[in-house]
Structures are given as structure tokens and as C-alpha cells.
Amino acid sequence: MGKKKANMGAFVLDGSVAVAWCFQDEENPYADAVAARFPTVQAVVPAIWPLEVANVLLVGERRKRCAPSDTAYRLTSLAALSIMIEDISRTNVWNEVLSLARAQNLSVYDAAYLELALRRSLPLATLDGRLKVAALAVGVAMFNP
Q: What topology does CATH give the domain 10-138?
């Protein structure tokens, strides 16, 4: 499969990038560059994204990396960004996403981001090495902030 033409006004935002924005010890130059592109870009995420982000923040609270007030602030900051949450159907998950996860040796969660990027012909912003390799293997471009 060849590279998909990327719409550089929009991109798929993996949870790994958003999480890097939330904790000082996870700061990353690529994640910072992605954040700097808002509000001139539109991020698209699968329906699991808010659950993933909320879970990471809750685990951060439990591990004393942040307080509930920090979580509230971070969620308010994320909600202010131009991030479109796209619904996903059971049929899509049980067919396309699961097949992609098997073929690329990914978790179903990671494959949801990859499937969204493929279906929407959008580049992907991720810090996850396995997801990057899988994206390149199926012709999904990396978002270049």
C-alpha cells in the first residue's frame, strides 16, 4: 500500500502526545511542536482517546505525580484545543481495527488511531515507536509540525 496523501490542516492525535503535555517528566520536543500548532490545526481522535487520557491522569494522581486539581486543569486545557472526537462503531472495531491490530502486531487501542488515520487519509502524531512503524508500513504519514 502506498503513502496516503496527507491533509496537513488536520491530523490524528495519539494519546502518547497528549500525555506528554500533561507531565513535566514526559516533556518531549515533538509533542511540544505539535501543541504549538494549535489553534491552526484540527486534531482528530478516536472515541477511546478521552478515556485513555483520563486514565493516565488518574493513574498519575494515584502515583502522586499530580493532584486532582492538576488533572482538572489539564483536562480543561485539552478541552480548549481543536480536537474532534470521532465515534467508532462496534462493526468497525470488530472488523477493520481488529484486523489492523493483528496485521501490524498492535493493541486494539493503538490500531484504532491507525485505522482512523487510514480511513480519513490523515497524518498521525504519535510518540509510540511501534505505532510509528505500523503507520509507515501501511502508508500513513507522520504529522510534521
A: Rossmann fold (3.40.50)
DSSP labels for 99-121? HHHHHHT--HHHHHHHHHHHHHT
Domain edges within the chain: 10-138
Asked if 123 contacts 12 with a C-beta cutoff of 8 angstroms, the reply is yes
Question: What is residue 5's predicted lDDT score, i.e. its pLDDT?
Answer: 41
pTM: 0.89
Which residues sit opposite 86 in a β-bridge?
A: 46
Q: How far is 86 from 74, CA to CA, in rounded Å?
A: 21
Phi (first) and psi of residue 2, to 5 degrees: -80, 175
- Answer for the pair 121, 11: CB distance below 8 angstroms, yes or no: no
Q: What pLDDT, in 10s, does the model give residues 64-80?
A: 999 999 999 999 999 99
